[in-house]
Automatic annotation (TrEMBL):
It comes from the Bacteria. Keywords: DNA-binding, Transcription, Transcription regulation. The keyword Transcription applies. InterPro entries: HTH_LacI, Lambda_DNA-bd_dom_sf. Pfam families: LacI. This is LacI family DNA-binding transcriptional regulator. One of its GO terms (molecular function) is DNA binding. Residues 10-64 form the HTH lacI-type domain.
Length: 97
């Protein structure tokens, strides 16, 4: 098994070594299971469970270069004003609702 820091979290390399497969096979087991046989996937998942391995979502986002998140900037105004529909506001001023 590859060495890791004492007390550190197990990595996909650790799981691969314990299951006797490549790191790619470990990735397939978690992300694209149809790419490997059911027996290999079960062996990988058993090794992962034994080691306490869970995929690192942050590492995955860094590797992919995307977070699939949307940022929202709220200005120092009341939320109701920000979300108010300008079309509704203009109709209420003219009396045509």
């Amino acid at each position: 098994m590859p060495s890791r820091k004492v007390g550190g979290k197990p990595t996909s390399s650790d799981v691969a070594a314990a299951a006797g497969v490549s790191r790619s096979a470990v990735s397939f087991a978690f992300n694209n299971p149809q790419r490997i046989s059911a027996a290999t996937r079960e062996r990988i998942l058993a090794a992962a469970a034994e080691l306490g391995y869970t995929p690192n979502t942050l590492a995955r986002m860094l590797q992919a270069g995307t977070t699939n998140s949307i940022g929202v900037l709220l200005l120092p105004q009341r939320l109701a004003q920000i979300l108010e529909n300008p079309a509704v506001r203009s109709r209420s001023r003219t009396g045509r609702c």
